[in-house]
């Protein structure tokens, strides 16, 4: 059993034996009421559970609950827990606590094994309970169900993004989308190079030119409402490896550019969660996917390409390729007459300089849409921060040879990138999430995070409730 003690230990469990046990542990200096502190007790006298783990939480919020559970599950790692029962001291858990539990479990038990089968996953318990009064039963059950669906989406996103570039190719990503769609009752269409050419996606194709791997354009449709209802369209950047192209990136840490399809992975994961939760809303996922490679055929700095919208682009830097594939996907989105379009992309290093690795960057041409995404990010505990889109930032994109250049100056780089995209979004409310800082971690904890599947799923669910 895991006992979560919020607010500096002021909250009691209500159980005499347990409360005395906690008080004694504190008195004897074995446990401290400090967020994240744990105490493991094996077969504590008088308790009819094999293990008791005390964990301190900052307060009673779902967010504090989730970090406390992360600490608790880390402390239980390697122990043969079969049935995990969680108690929140001093308060009734609600749906948000329950969802937090499901996500903490995903976090504790996910292990990447595809190219390293020797990696062993911590055994997940066969049964998990969150103890509550009968009055809270329905909410907790619903929260667990929602949390499990989101967790499955997060796992799928991590599983895709963690795969190395020689495994996760555009072709594989298309096949994976088809598998996911089939398993979850979604309509999936994968367009090949010929079809992409036919659509006139000259900007997207200019990025793919240098690679021997053929590009794909993936379309996923979830129908939860009448066909006539305008859908929410999610667009994910699917660069399966970003070398920078002819504007080649430096060697250190270039391996991490396999994560440059993190936006695409989060769109796949979100549609997986949505298919399970069945909100009454239509959702479309669009994924342009290719490699960005240098070669004799690759696009060169100064080349001018024609986007699907007809606008021409001077490619001054082939490493600013994300916007070049996204702009054609945004134009493709027009055919759905969407109620809203949100694109998700590991778009700029500059957003990492601005916001670090905690908050994603949110850009939106529509205030109501921005508010909805911010609200979703709070309830999902998947934070993002709104960035500006003043027209002054657009000036850097002027070109002598085309309607626009694909880069401006270094200053405010994530904003000029967003301004570039905005030029293709005149026909619908639009928002853009720059997730370069949050979709994966570097260093010792290197790996995909599955963000922002939580944010996007909550956004879709909230829109369905309002529709
Ligand atoms: N995929 C990168 C952005 C990125 C950087 C993601 C670091 C994750 C971690 C993107 O395609 C890119 O290379 N952007 C350039 C844009 C520049 C050339 C205007 C960048 O940020 O340096
Ligand atoms: Mn790049
Ligand atoms: Zn990139």
Question: What does this 3D model show about the protein?
Answer:
- This protein is an alpha/beta fold.
- The chain folds into 2 domains: 2-130, Leucine Aminopeptidase, subunit E, domain 1; 160-466, Aminopeptidase (3-Layer(aba) Sandwich), CATH 3.40.630.
- Helices cover 36% and strands 20% of the residues.
- It has 13 helices and 19 strands.
- The protein has helices at 16-27, 62-75, 95-109, 137-162, 170-184, 193-199, 202-208, 262-277, 322-333, 350-355, 367-379, 413-422, 453-466, and strands at residues 2-5, 38-42, 51-56, 83-88, 127-130, 187-191, 216-223, 232-236, 238-242, 282-292, 303-306, 312-315, 340-345, 360-364, 384-386, 404-405, 430-434, 440-441, 447-448.
- Strands 6, 7, 8, 9, 10, 13, 14, 15 and 17 form a 9-stranded mixed sheet that branches. A 5-stranded mixed sheet has the order 2-3-1-4-5, with helices on one face. It has a 3-stranded mixed sheet with strand order 11-12-16, covered by helices on one side.
- A hairpin with an 8-residue loop joins strand 2 and strand 3.
- Helix 2 packs parallel to helix 3, helix 7 (202-208) runs antiparallel to helix 9 and helix 11 crosses helix 13.
- The site of manganese (II) ion has 4 residues, from loops.
Topology (SSEs and partners):
Elements (H helix, E strand, L loop, with lengths): L1 E4 L10 H12 L10 E5 L8 E6 L5 H14 L7 E6 L6 H15 L17 E4 L6 H26 L7 H15 L2 E5 L1 H7 L2 H7 L7 E8 L8 E5 L1 E5 L19 H16 L4 E11 L10 E4 L5 E4 L6 H12 L6 E6 L4 H6 L4 E5 L2 H13 L4 E3 L17 E2 L7 H10 L7 E5 L5 E2 L5 E2 L4 H14 L1
Parallel strand pairs: 1-3, 1-4, 4-5, 8-10, 8-13, 9-10, 12-16, 13-17, 14-15
Antiparallel strand pairs: 2-3, 6-7, 7-10, 11-12, 14-17, 18-19
Helix pairs in contact: 2-3, 3-4, 4-8, 5-8, 7-9, 8-13, 9-12, 11-13
The chain binds ligand BES, manganese (II) ion and zinc ion.
């Amino acid at each position: 059993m895991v006992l979560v003690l919020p607010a500096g230990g002021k909250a009691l469990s209500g159980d005499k034996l347990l409360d005395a046990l906690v008080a004694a542990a504190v008195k004897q200096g074995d446990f401290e009421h400090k967020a994240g502190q744990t105490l493991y007790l094996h077969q504590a006298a008088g308790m009819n559970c094999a293990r008791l783990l005390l964990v301190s939480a900052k307060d009673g919020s779902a967010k504090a609950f989730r970090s406390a559970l992360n600490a608790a599950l880390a402390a239980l790692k390697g122990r043969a827990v079969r049935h995990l029962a969680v108690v929140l001291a001093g308060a009734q858990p609600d749906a948000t606590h329950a969802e937090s539990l499901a996500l903490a479990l995903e976090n504790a038990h996910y292990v990447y094994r595809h190219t390293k089968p020797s990696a062993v996953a911590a055994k997940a318990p066969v049964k998990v309970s969150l103890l509550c009064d009968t009055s809270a039963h329905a909410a907790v059950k619903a929260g667990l169900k929602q949390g499990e669906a989101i967790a499955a989406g997060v796992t799928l996103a991590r599983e895709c993004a963690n795969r190395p570039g020689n495994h996760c190719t555009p072709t594989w990503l298309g096949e994976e989308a088809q598998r996911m769609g089939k398993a979850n009752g979604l309509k999936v269409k994968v367009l090949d190079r010929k079809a992409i050419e036919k659509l006139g996606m000259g900007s997207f194709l200019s990025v793919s030119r240098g690679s021997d791997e053929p590009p794909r354009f993936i379309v996923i449709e979830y129908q939860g409402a009448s066909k006539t209802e305008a859908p929410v369209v999610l667009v994910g950047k699917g660069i399966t490896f970003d070398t920078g192209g002819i504007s080649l990136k430096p060697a250190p840490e270039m391996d991490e550019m396999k994560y440059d399809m993190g936006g695409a992975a989060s769109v796949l994961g979100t549609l997986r969660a949505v298919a399970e939760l069945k909100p009454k809303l239509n959702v479309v996922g669009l994924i342009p996917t290719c490699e960005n490679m240098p070669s004799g055929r690759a696009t060169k700095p100064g080349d001018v390409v024609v986007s699907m919208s007809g606008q021409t682009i001077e490619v001054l830097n082939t490493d600013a390729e994300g916007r070049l594939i996204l702009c054609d996907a945004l134009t493709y989105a027009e055919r759905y007459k969407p109620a809203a379009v949100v694109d998700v992309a590991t778009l700029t290093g500059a957003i990492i300089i601005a916001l670090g690795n905690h908050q994603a960057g949110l850009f939106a041409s529509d205030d109501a849409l921005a508010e909805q995404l911010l609200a979703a990010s709070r309830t999902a505990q998947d934070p993002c921060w709104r960035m500006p889109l003043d027209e002054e930032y657009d000036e850097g994109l002027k070109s002598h040879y085309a309607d626009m250049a694909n880069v401006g100056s270094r200053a405010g780089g994530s904003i000029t990138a967003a301004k570039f995209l905005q030029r293709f979004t005149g026909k619908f409310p639009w928002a853009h999430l720059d997730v370069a800082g949050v979709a994966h971690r570097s260093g010792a904890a290197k790996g995909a995070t599955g963000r922002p599947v939580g944010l996007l799923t909550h956004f879709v669910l909230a829109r369905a409730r309002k529709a």
